[in-house]
Amino acid sequence: MRGGPGSAAVQGNAQGNASRYSRAMCALPAPARSLWLALTRAGAYGALHGSHPGDPYLGLTVPVQAAAELREALTTLAQAEVRATLLLPPALAARMPQDVWAATRAGHEIAGWGEPRDLPLLEVTAGHPVTAWALEEADLGRPHLAWLARRGVHPLPLPSPSPEPGLTLRVPPGDLAPTLARLKKLGYRLVPVRDLPGLRPATPRDLLLHLYRRLVDDRFERAHGVVPLTERADAVMRVAAQPVPPELPFPPGTPAAELHLHSPRLVGLTSRSALRAYRAYQRSLRDVAHALRERPELREAQAVFAVTLFHGPLEKNGFTLVPLPPLRARVYGLGFRLMRAVYGTTTGPSETEPKLAWMPREAFLARHG
């Protein structure tokens, strides 16, 4: 369905209240709500996931709740030369057809938002077929998902809480200007969700990966004080303040900085290009140097170390390698094999035995800081 904005009558309030079904969903026990959330992450009813994590593309969505917000968003996006997916309730879109049509002409994607209804009204107003819809958690359930599926409309990916390559980020109109400037500086390429390269429906594996990250990675970060240094689109390092391991020539308890990889991102970069991944790895060492200088918990660290299979690149960047005791090496090796299976690594590392790589603080800063 293509053409200019329509003049269909608007029924109901533009914002509307949540439907009886939405209120019922909110009243359901947490396990029931979590079930539909999980099914959506697994691709139920054609729900979308995102694109490849090795590319710096980020699907930008902008929720619009009033005519003034749409005009503000269009102005800011035009100034930044960025196109986005605009999330619009159909009734609100029909109140401002000229503005919605201007958004279509500017190359923005129009997607539904909220309780699914009035799809023809939104399509006529937008001047193109609407193929995506943003559902809030309270709206996730069989009736709404089935309603969209019967009409060939895909639920949009649930927005990421922070920028991640290949995922989507929801930014309110009032926050667009500073957020767009920051994301561009961090190396992200902002596009409408429909323009994410390789955009695909979610699969059960996406759900499993999400659960692993929440139940294993996130808990590990909290338990060990791991700080992500991954704001930049190709940054792959995390760091934690830890005492030196016993193999290093320091008194017990000497503060040190332990390196950890952002495994999903490194796997994605490597699958695109080994050279790109290696360069990102080297740039990320500069992020660690900056953290050593600026973060209070790392200012006393006397060494930088990592237990890793990827010790070859570290050795080339000035690290000394130390063999691990056989039992520790086996335990770490099992853990690394599990992570490789979870994150779908297709290319194995050049080394099969983990080693301890380390470098004195001042030598690290002199080389990478």
Question: What's the layout of helices and strands?
Answer:
Blueprint: H1 20-27, H2 30-41, E1 48-50, E2 57-63, H3 67-80, E3 85-88, H4 90-95, H5 97-105, E4 109-113, H6 119-126, E5 132-134, H7 142-150, E6 154-155, E7 168-170, H8 176-185, E8 189-191, E9 200-201, H9 204-224, E10 226-228, E11 237-243, E12 255-261, H10 263-272, H11 274-294, E13 303-308, H12 311-316, E14 320-323, H13 326-343, E15 355-360, H14 361-368
Parallel strand pairs: 2-3, 2-7, 2-8, 3-4, 4-5, 5-6, 12-13
Antiparallel strand pairs: 1-9, 10-11, 11-12, 13-15, 14-15
Helix pairs in contact: 3-8, 10-11, 11-14
Domain YkoP-like: 256-367
InterPro entries: YkoP-like_dom
Protein name: YkoP-like domain-containing protein
Mind explaining what this structure looks like?
There is one protein chain. The chain is of the alpha/beta class and 369 residues long. The protein folds into two domains: 20-201, Glycoside hydrolase/deacetylase (TIM Barrel); 206-368, Aminopeptidase, CATH 3.40.630. It has helices at residues 20-27, 30-41, 67-80, 90-95, 97-105, 119-126, 142-150, 176-185, 204-224, 263-272, 274-294, 311-316, 326-343, 361-368, and strands at 48-50, 57-63, 85-88, 109-113, 132-134, 154-155, 168-170, 189-191, 200-201, 226-228, 237-243, 255-261, 303-308, 320-323, 355-360. Strands 2, 3, 4, 5, 6, 7 and 8 form a seven-stranded parallel sheet that branches. A six-stranded mixed sheet has the order 10-11-12-13-15-14, with helices on both faces. A hairpin with an 8-residue loop joins strand 10 (226-228) and strand 11. 41% of the residues are buried. Mean pLDDT is 88; it is low at 1-28.
